[in-house]
Amino acid sequence: MADVLLVNPPPPRHLRQAMEHLGLGYLASELRRSGFSADIINAPTEGLDFEGLTKEIMGRSFDVLGVSVLFQDNLRPTLEWLKSLRAGGLEAHITIGGHPATFTYREILTEYDCIDSVVRGEGEFTLTELVEKIESGLDWRSVNGLVFKDAEEIIANPTRPLIRDLNALVWPARDVYQTKPPGFDQLVVAGSRGCHCDCSFCSISTFYRSFKGRVWRNRDPEDVLDEIDAARKIWPLEFVLLIDDTFIGPGKVGREQAFEFAEVLGRRRKGYFIGTSCRADQVDEELFRELRKAGVRMVFLGIESGNEETLRVLNKRTDVETNRRAVEILDKLDISIEAGFIMFNPYTKFSNIREDLKFLKQTGLGPEILSDLGLFPGEPLIEKLIADGLVTGSPFKYTAKYANDGVGEFFEFLRSRLFRQRDFGAVRMGQQMLQGAKIGVLPSSTPNLKEIEAQLHNFYKVVFEVLNKGVDIFEIGQESETSLSALEKEFVSRCEAESDKIQNLLGQSSLITSK
User: Fold this and answer.
1) How confident is the model at residue 15 (pLDDT cuts 50, 70, 90)?
2) What pLDDT score was predicted for residue 71?
3) Rounded to the nearest 10 degrees, how much is the dihedral formed by the CA atoms of 457, 461, 464, 469?
4) What is the C-alpha to C-alpha distance for residues 33 and 36, in angstroms, rounded to an integer?
5) How confident is the model at residue 514 (pLDDT cuts 50, 70, 90)?
6) Average pLDDT of the chain?
7) What region does 47 belong to: left with phi over 0, alpha with psi -120 to 50, or beta?
8) Which of 8-12, 237-241, 423-427, 442-446 has the lowest mean pLDDT?
9) How are beta strands 117-119 and 146-150 bridged, if at all?
10) Helix (H), strand (E) at residue 455
């Protein structure tokens, strides 16, 4: 019997991410340090849906069920699942945490009597104290950081400050992955927590600024590398992702700390490469040349837009030229880029889309990064959208509409007709080969890499040309079924032709998925 069972529920279908859940690992380690037993079920890596997860849980004995919800889209399904568990006879204390739960605790406790408590903010010490109270038979309702319902009143206890010294935390528990081999191909490690910026579309900054303490905190690089070495003894994977909100901290100090990390990484790294994340205005050639030499091969780059107007809406506090320059530097240094890019938001104009498509074409970024604005509680932009009448619904699920005629219809056309269920397998494989060579898991001498890269850019060019034609059609309100069918047919035929050229370069490899 475990004192605590920690669960990462199955994610929404469009967010099938099978990776280690560091948050649950940290919770388990802190509980164990305090003398409690804790098990982890990570449904995504174990291939469990809600039905399979129920069978797994009902065969176990525990006093506290702790559930971490990472994605807002998954909050309601998870709550409905917990409701069914309670109705099926589960008697354990059910507590839920994570960013979505922190922002929607009132709605959760109002609608779901099955939830005993909600953990707000960083949960290591709050959950441990909760379990101490429960296991000792004491009243747990006094624990700081908890929210609960007393009769019809929702009681929010005082919040806890952010954890000041991340080095004092025990490394995440990973024993669960030793008994059940993981279904992922990369390690994830946290080198820092928090973000010092205040982008209007992001709830991360709001989450950390809701509690006292320094928002961005980093770990000692030596401790981070010690953890990586220990984790690779369990699984000697070749790629390690620093899953930080932002790898580089604020100002001069943040830059100096990034140089320090590069020095330690370069001195100690053996047998793997690193991926990380940052803002475009944090990319300078001197720093990233050192990071590249040390072993950084991939950067998730928060660009978000290729036009000034949208950058202001998103409060990025940067500009198009800075974004362009960041891409150029990383390309020059042969560092793979995964870009964050939000082409569609409720204020988007067709002129913004044209500028974004031009930016993407100039920088060589592919169309797979196109997305709309996710609407989540805690985003500063939500309040403005509600005031402008552009958002309806509840924090469980907001629904947006577009201020400018035709833009929403254009996005829906892209989502439901042009890109839905289109799998140009050769394109995807070509992209994976290029990234594999850049991050070091494929040799740079892999045949035809340069030719494949050039042909991928031809594919992107075709996509952007067709999208520009779509902008012309929707902007003047001429989106008849005839015109849209013709555009869809052109998209498929031209993209298939370019994909076939990539297929020819790749050869007859059995790894290629047919389109």
Assistant:
1) low
2) 87
3) -170
4) 7
5) very low
6) 92
7) left
8) 442-446
9) antiparallel
10) helix 449-475
pLDDT tens figures, 451-482: 999 999 999 999 999 999 999 999 999 999 99
Cα(414)–Cα(408) distance, integer angstroms = 10
Pairing of strands 336-341, 62-68: unpaired
- Tell me which residue has tokens 């998209």: 491
Q: Are 154 and 113 in contact (CB under 8 A)?
A: no
Q: Is 492 exposed, middle or buried (0-12, 13-18, 19+ CB in 10 A)?
A: middle
Quick check: 17 pLDDT over 70? no
- The crossing angle, in degrees rounded to 10, of helices 481-506 and 425-439 is 50
Measured torsion, CA atoms of residues 160, 164, 165, 169, in degrees rounded to the nearest 10 = 20
Q: Which residues make Cβ contacts (< 8 Å) with residue 276, sequence separation at least 6? A: 191, 241, 242, 244, 247, 296, 298, 299, 300
What are the residues facing 392 on neighbouring strands? Answer: 399
Beta bridge partners of 391: 400
Both tokens of residue 61? Answer: 């004995």
Q: Is there a contact between 32 and 10 (Cβ–Cβ < 8 Å)?
A: no
- Secondary structure (DSSP) of 111-124: H-TT--EEE-S--H
pLDDT, tens digit, 9 for 90 and up, residues 318-338: 999 999 999 999 999 999 999
Q: Are 146 and 117 in contact (CB under 8 A)?
A: yes
CB under 8 Å to 436, separation ≥6 — which residues?
Answer: 442
At 166 the pLDDT is 97
At residue 172's C-alpha, the angle toward residues 103 and 8, to 5°, is 45
DSSP letter at 127 equals: H
Give the mean model confidence (pLDDT) for residues 192-207: 94
* Residues listed for the chain: 515
Pairing of β 62-68 and β 2-8: parallel
Paired strand residues for 97: 68
Instruction: Report the predicted TM-score, pTM, of the whole model to 2 decimal places.
Output: 0.92
CATH architecture of 2-156: 3-Layer(aba) Sandwich (3.40)
Identify whether the C-beta of residue 30 lies closer than 8 Å to the C-beta of residue 127.
Answer: yes
CA distance 73 to 393: 13
Domain ranges of the chain: 2-156, 406-515
Q: How far apart are CA 509 and CA 502, in angstroms?
A: 12
Q: What is the tens place of the pLDDT at every residue in 63-91? A: 999 999 998 989 999 999 999 999 999 99
